Amino acid sequence: MGGKRCHTLDESQCIIPQFGSGPFTNSSGSGHFSVAEYRDLLSFAKKHFITVVPEIDMPGHSHSTVASMEHRYRKYKALGNMTAANEYRLVDPEDTSFYKSVQNWRDNAMNPCIESTYNFISKLMDTFKDLHKDIQPLIFHFGGDEVSPDAWKKSPACDDFLANHPEFNISHGKVAS
Hints:
The chain is mainly α. The protein has 2 domains: 1-32, no CATH class; 35-175, no CATH class. It contains 5 helices and 4 strands, in the order αβαααβαββ. Strand 3 (170-171) and strand 4 (174-175) form a beta hairpin.
């Protein structure tokens, strides 16, 4: 779902196109590598003394991931499996914060105050380790820039987290007292 771009109003089948990717899912802005394709790419790179360094942007720049995990949530919720529905959810459903990213997304930041975000990151890293196994060591880059200062401002999960972990309650570079 998150790897496809197309014209849609509700993003139930694909992500709204940006930056010239166009209205059709077969454009250069859509798609993903299969496991075999990614491993072939790693093998090709290794033969040519090239190190593949995946860049994983989080918590910002994560609109397609957030939308995909919300799609997954709705699928498992409809099946009555709330454990699976919530396993990798990246948003606090009680969060009423309003923000826009520099790309004009209103939901492009993973919430760092909920356990399911870390379940997702763990699954993601385990998957990358498996993909690189026996081909190339996994070296990765986490990008985390351009998160709106208004993201999570009204997240009860973040309020609770910060109340229980005051050492992380930072304002303007100074620890709040």
